[in-house]
């Protein structure tokens, strides 16, 4: 009886492996898009703080006031901006933060010799931007589920949600963000 049970388990294991291979799926599937989400959210949190610190340092050092931010650097603290939950929102944040960093870089460049703290903060922001860009690229290539042939897609679009806008404040907020997002190109 024990031999027969062992043989049955072996046959089931072999069939599972063969089935996985025939579907092009390794027996130990790699990471999925959702598994990278916490990493992306963590990087966004550090990047947002870095950009705020850079802004404060520039203001403290006399390189401008509230106008220094410009519309592209309004990093508000609402839940959608603070906690993106899908690749589309993360991709939008990457674009917004890149444009914001470029805006600050345009202010910093003519200064010439930078104080060490501005130079260091600029390097940190650039590092976080690179990490987020690499994470987004990786997420776009990862499957949505183990052994899935579908890769992650940008899931939120303005036209898909238009008829849903009256159903709640979250969607209205997303519409506002989308319209703000149109102020600058993200290509």
From TrEMBL:
Keywords: Signal
Signal peptide: 1-24
Name of the featured protein: Uncharacterized protein
